[in-house]
Design goal:
299 residues; alpha/beta; Arc Repressor Mutant, subunit A; D-Maltodextrin-Binding Protein, domain 2; five-stranded mixed beta sheet; 10 helices; elongated
């Protein structure tokens, strides 16, 4: 048994926690997967899994071996992919996470042409509006909107999105139109936060090159971009929304810009990926395509 194949099967069993599921994923007999892992254990001289009739879990040695195994497999995959010259040669699966609103308005509408260019490439897109660990989740890259926290990931800046303050006509009918910062004491803010903790709601705005925050009343907090937008459309308060993807709602007057002289700090959009020395060719191609797509939407 080729050791690389055995390592790939070990990683799949570790992720699925099942020899049966790993076999189904690869379209192979369960006995073949089990034999590969057993051969790998003999070669290493350690036991990688605790096996029972109900569960498969990693041993301490398995826990140590897994991340190093994943790193090595990623390096082998990246090296092999560098020799893929033609679009038809680009193959494999890319696992990507991005905010749901970004996926719906920026990426998904343009994917058909990208996939037509690379017919042997497969994408798995998750749209989690909370922070995920790409290494732990086995993701190739993640797109983040907003300030980045310190991490071991490599960040590739894509663009800056202007944020606008918006309300709905229903909100204006109930609370009126704010025209000054002082008016905000009598209005409601929809709070957006990745973690719904006990943090006071703030209206953010720029004063010169300084970021200012003004405490505001708030009765609702959300941690999802679609929920945030829909809360504003439903008249629940003022939202500070990236302008991308809401232009039509403004034209239809479903969203009404307010306090345009007090916009929040522009929001950086970044693509992050694990710090490998050599990213696989399919990841490089996707990153270049996404960067070009984002730039084209700015024109």
């Amino acid at each position: 048994m080729d050791q690389i194949d055995a390592m790939q099967r070990f990683v799949l069993v570790a992720h699925t926690r099942s020899f049966t599921k790993a076999a189904e994923t690869l379209g192979l007999p369960k006995s073949s997967i089990s034999a590969s892992v057993q051969d790998l254990e003999k070669q290493l001289g350690v036991r990688l899994f605790h096996r029972s009739t109900r569960s498969v879990t990693l041993t301490q040695d398995g826990e140590t071996y897994l991340p190093q195994c994943q790193t090595l497999l990623a390096e082998v995959d990246a090296l092999n992919s560098q020799f893929q010259r033609n679009p038809d040669d680009i193959r494999g699966t890319l696992r990507i996470d991005m905010p749901s609103r970004f996926a719906a308005t920026v990426v998904i509408p343009h994917l058909s042409r990208f996939l037509a260019t690379y017919p042997n490439l497969r994408l798995k897109i998750s749209s989690a509006d909370y922070r995920v660990d790409p290494v732990k989740e086995g993701l190739d890259c993640v797109i983040r909107v907003g300030e980045l926290t310190n991490s071991d990931l490599i960040a590739r800046p894509l663009t800056l999105y202007r944020s606008i303050n918006c309300v709905s006509a229903e909100y204006v009918a109930q609370y009126g139109m704010p025209t000054t910062l002082a008016d905000l004491a009598h209005h409601r803010l929809i709070e957006y936060s990745h973690t719904l903790g006990n943090v006071e709601a703030h209206f953010e705005y720029m004063e010169g090159d300084q970021v200012k925050q003004l405490a505001m009343p708030s009765r609702i907090a959300v941690n999802g971009t679609e929920a945030y937008l829909n809360a504003c459309l439903s008249g629940l308060g003022i939202a500070q929304i990236p302008v991308i993807g809401v232009e039509a709602l403004i034209e239809e007057k479903r969203l009404i810009p307010v306090l345009t002289q007090y916009e929040a700090q522009p929001m950086p959009v970044s693509l992050l990926y694990p710090s490998r020395r050599l990213p696989p060719k399919r990841l490089i191609i996707f990153m270049d395509w996404l960067h070009a797509l984002v730039l084209s939407k700015e024109k």
